[in-house]
Amino acid sequence: MAVEWSVLVLTCQRGGCVSAFQRELEVRRLRGGLGPRPPPLLLAVEDPWASLGSGGATLNALLVAAEHLSARAGCTVVTSDVLKEAHILILHTGRDFSFDDCGRAFTCLPVEEPSAVAEALVCNLDSLLGTMTHRLCVGSPPGVWVCSTDMLLTMPSAPGINWDGLQGVRVIAVPGSQAYARNHGVYLTDEQGLVHNIIYKGTEAQIQQCAGPDGTVPLVCGVVFFSSDAAEQLLATHVIPPLDACTYMGLDSGAPPIQLSLFFDIVLSMARGVTEQDFVKGGGDTSVRNARSVLWAALHTFPLSMACISNASYDYMTTSASDHIRSLTLLPSSASHLFFCKTAHSHVDQPCLLEDGSSVTNCLLEGAVRLAAGSVIQHCHLQVHGCDGSDPKFSVHWMGSRVRWPWLGCGTHDYEICHALPLWGCLSGGAEDPGSCCPPQAQGPGHPWPVPPQEPGQIICHGCRPWPEFLQFHIPAAPQ
């Protein structure tokens, strides 16, 4: 079975190439990636402001979806009646991601799908679309699903959610360890499964209070369902200041920008253990407090329930290199509809040199390229000749068209991650081999990835060894 979506919305940041996102949706429709009956409406929606937040982006996307549904129904103005029988999926692409220029949603996974209608690279967006369409949302009543794309999410084929008589809003949770919850959000619920509060990076005592009999806690996994009635009420707030500033209509009218969180400004307004005074006061500046007051009045009467899916898994895509490598080299749980493989959409001259626990996606590896466990290479053409074959451990996510770096494959230390980027202007220097202009970046795997672009042709060393030692070991012939 599969959900037949009425509208599929993919949001992107301001200036985030909305036309490219629209093409990506159309490509997935053409290659059969949106099910046997794809949505009649595929919409890429740009945030009207920078740093709008997931809550503001949800309200703006809901408004755009309602406009298109109203137009298809022959209405000359937006009417919330079109939401009563609609099945809407909103996917948020979120913020920039250090390890992929296209963001977490389009991060490639080491997956091949032989049974797919058309062969193509599989990215996190494809995984989430499959999870939502064929697993998690099957059997749900009309309403609006909102899903983040900043995590790897797996669900069993039959999640076992009871949708009978659902009213209000339901959040989806995944069981996780209390140690993992220290850096994430968890739900505090009562015996009936109603949410009392959302604890983010709580104390040990707060997290323990959320634990079930087996010691696990319900992790916030970035997925929430609004019934059609709740979605109508949320949509109605788009004309009320200051929430009008979350939509493109507010942009047109000159309303000052406002930033809202989906979970801590919208969903939390329905939690039974939070008072109106505490909720409104926790809003920071005056505009957010006013927005919270409007949201409380509109949504607080709706019950907020939780469904915690056993045998599901959630892995937030952090800015840690070691976390990212672990996500791409460890097999997903048995609940996943995808299966990670060591070599995906690649040709490798000597596959025997790839250790178990390494990952190669969309690559051509020529010569004695040896990968140790915990190594990831994507989108590369590597040629390695004349090395001794000692074990490297590195991650390369973009290397241009052709790369010949003799030090790759010659014993990179385990605590270093090498990352090649086409930094500003480095591909326009007219070199005979454009890919050779891409400078390597080396960094300790536990350090956050460097954000600001460096000068073209510069080699950057972060969290590893002193400059002389790094250069002498890796690039003996490098200029000073």
Automatic annotation (TrEMBL):
Q: Which residues form the GDP-fucose pyrophosphorylase domain?
A: 80-383
Q: Name one GO biological process term.
A: GDP-L-fucose salvage
What InterPro entries would the database entry show?
GDP_fucose_pyrophosphorylase, GHMP_Kinase-Related
Q: Does the keyword Hydrolase apply?
A: no
One MF term in the entry's GO annotations: nucleotide binding
Highest taxon, organism lineage:
Eukaryota
In its keyword annotation, does this UniProt entry include Nucleotide-binding?
Answer: yes
Q: Print the keywords alphabetically.
A: Kinase, Nucleotide-binding, Transferase
Q: What's the name of the protein?
A: GDP-fucose pyrophosphorylase domain-containing protein
The species this protein was found in: Melopsittacus undulatus
Q: According to the entry, what is the taxonomic lineage of the organism?
A: Eukaryota, Metazoa, Chordata, Craniata, Vertebrata
